[in-house]
Amino acid sequence: MNFNMTLAQRVQSRILEYGSFITVLFVVSIYLSTSLAIILSGLLGLFWLLSAQFMVLPGTLKKNPVTAWSLLLFLCFIFGLCYSSATYGEAFSMLMKYRELLFIPVLIPFLTTERYRCWVWKAFVIASVLILLISYLMDIGFLDLNKHGDPAFKSRITHSIFISFFAFFCAHKAYDGKRYAKLYWVLFIFSVYNLFFIVEGRTGQLIAVSLVLLFGVQRFTKKVLLFTVLVVAILLALFLAFSDKATRINEGIASTQAYLQSHPEKTEVSMGARFTFWRDSLRLIAEKPLLGHGTGSFAKEYQRITRNEHLIAKNPHNEFLMISVQLGLLGLLIYLGFLASQYYYAKKLPNKEKWLAQGVLLSLIVTSLFNCPLMDHAEGHWFTTMIALCFASLEVGVKAEINHA
To answer: Which spans in 220-309 are helix H?
Structure first.
């Protein structure tokens, strides 16, 4: 009997170890290959089942409430299938787009060991440096990998989200003044330059500014923080006033002003279109405020009420509204609970993981205001994986600070 139990434990341990190796590859695949990410995510799910982690899932949910909230949100999308106004195929397709919420409970068992978390952080650094290098090579015409013409391996939005957080990560590593500090400062500078003068993704630029301010709150005294805010404000003002790379930001400001001044002909400009999507989404929420129109219903319901046939939307470019239209205020409250749980339980992490978890949370909130990161493939995979990586130590009650890379 004891021999059988020991053998089972050894097999389970080995499966978890293999799952940790796959997690490392999975992180890199998120940056480079959609197909490979899907395959590896399937393998991770299989290894999770083979290692019988479903038997200890209640304990995981209790120790790690962030996991519980992510699972609860996914269950809401399953419940939304029951009353959706969309066809079953459309509703199920939308459910699969939010399957990334399951990555948090699935990945955490593979990340409870400090050594494996360090490997995954190193994979994050390697993948980030790689897409940063590819972006610079695309900008000088050495590579042509984006059909839209943007100097980014992924979309401009996706790339800017990834690199803005990588700059935040590098700032923390450099500020620690330990090994490779100078190299991290260089990577930080190259990342910021890439965000504002190469790729020009507005979402990433806003995230970068927000993360710089968060970094100041985390690491600086009040006087230094005030000076940092002043410097950031001056640099932004100079950038907007004199740089020809600020065109997209200025266009966004102009289209916002035009929309607020009731110039409908301007709504087809990016930000103006978003305001129209948001306004009409609020109308849909008002129709069924409690439970919404069901999973996958947004596109069909939006087409029903839109006044502008040229502005047909599959999503409102806002995660809060996207969830509210489909799942009502119930779904919105659960999503807010998911975000709030990250804020609260990040305080229980060691400083280095706490700071990074707060950075991931702020990035997710900012992205959710202008996009649907959980629904989008690359962003959804990335955010849920980073959340799992930051909060995995809650599972084992880690108190020691961790050297990530």
So the answer is: 222-242, 247-260, 270-287, 298-305
The answer for residues whose C-beta is within 8 angstroms of residue 129's C-beta and 6 or more apart is: 187
The H or E element containing residue 131 is: helix 114-139
| CA count, 13 A, side-chain hemisphere, 34 | 9
Shortest CA distance to 236 belongs to which of 275, 259, 202?
202
Categorise residue 201: left if φ over 0, alpha if ψ from -120 to 50, beta otherwise: beta
- Amino acid residing at 235: L
φ and ψ at 349, to 5 degrees?
-85, 160
Residue-level pLDDT, tens digit, the chain, 405 residues:
455 557 667 777 888 888 999 999 999 999 999 999 999 999 999 999 998 888 888 888 888 999 999 999 999 999 999 999 999 999 999 999 999 999 999 999 999 889 999 999 999 999 999 999 999 999 888 877 766 667 788 888 999 999 999 999 999 999 998 888 999 999 999 999 999 999 888 899 999 999 999 999 999 999 999 999 999 999 888 888 877 776 767 666 666 666 666 555 545 555 667 888 898 999 999 999 999 999 999 999 988 887 766 667 788 999 999 999 999 999 999 999 999 999 999 999 988 899 999 999 999 999 999 999 999 999 999 999 999 999 998 765 543 333 444
**pTM listed for this prediction:** 0.91
Closest CA to 317 of 361, 363, 357, 281: 281
Q: In the 8-state DSSP scheme, what is residue 189?
A: H
